[in-house]
Amino acid sequence: MTERGAAVLGDALVENRSLKSLDMSWNLVGSRGAHSVAAGLAVHPCLRTVLFSHLGLGEMGSAYIATSLAENTTLNFVDLSDNNIRGLSCAVLASSLEARGHIDFLDLSGNPLGKSGATRLLRVFVGGFVDKVVLAGCNFVDVGNMTNIVNERNPNKTYKLVLSNPMDFQIACDLCRLWRMHGPGSWTGCYYNSHPFKLTEEKNWPECMPRAGNLTVRFVGARMVQTKIEPLTEDEFNNLWTCSGGAEATDEWK
């Protein structure tokens, strides 16, 4: 299956109302094909299992699929192994999992999650949003271009975002959260679709933030965020232990 085939499948998923399992593994659909499939996944009322291993999704394609998980509440078994999922797409996936509340099984084996991506996902695992996760063969070292990821300890820089891009949309969500921490003066030199823009509480971002358009933000924090590292609580540890397989956990998690 190619991108064109994935587009046909995406349309079919919108019309179909009975499919419960979908295995697309080892088809090179790429990010464009993933966009089409994600649109169908988001609205499908019956799917329980999706096997999307080795689809060549990349960061963009993985982010499209991850976004659909927030809207589809029936899926409980998801395999996204070996799809080059990295830091930004991990952030989108983490937010989607938190938004949907719970999933039974998630396989992310063979993905270069990186430190930043693993950190975002760890919060989800500790929070009990995933019953079991598989991370065999993942890389936890950041590599490649990480310039657009929001560094919460030092977010000060200019961000140029295309909100139709799910990764840029996630960055905008992160900046909205930091705006509440640092105050209204932290967003300077803001433009939405080339027009001056000022974020206020009345706009209710990110909940009501549009998923289209171009946003430019120069973030100037009033203070550096001090990250206080504390031990996991007993409940958090139990969630992480159960999620990673408990006694059957790989050496990376023990």
Which properties best describe this structure?
alpha/beta, 15% strand, five-stranded parallel sheet, 254 residues
Structural class: alpha/beta
> How are the strands of the largest sheet arranged?
1-2-3-4-5
Q: From the structure provided, what is the oligomeric state, counting identical versus distinct chains?
A: single chain
- Fraction of helical residues: 25-40%
Q: Report Rg.
A: 19 Å
Along the chain, the helix and strand elements come as HEHEHEHEHEEHEEEH
Low-confidence stretches: none
What is the β-strand count?
9
Count every helix, treating DSSP H or I runs of 4 or more residues as helices.
7
Largest sheet at a glance? 5 strands, parallel
Provide mean pLDDT, rounded.
88
Q: Beta-strand level of the residues, as a percent range?
A: 15-25%
Amino- and carboxy-terminal Cα gap: 39 Å
Shape: globular
Describe this protein's structure.
This protein has helices at 3-15, 30-43, 58-71, 87-100, 114-126, 166-182, 234-243, and strands at residues 21-23, 49-51, 77-79, 103-107, 130-134, 157-162, 187-192, 195-196, 214-219. The protein is globular. Helix 5 links the parallel strand 4 (103-107) and strand 5. It starts with a helix and ends in an 11-residue tail after the last helix. The protein has seven helices and nine strands. With 254 residues, the chain is an alpha/beta fold. The model has no long low-confidence stretch (mean pLDDT 88). The longest helix is centred in the C-terminal third of the chain and has 17 residues, at 166-182. Helix 4 (87-100) runs parallel beside helix 5 (114-126).
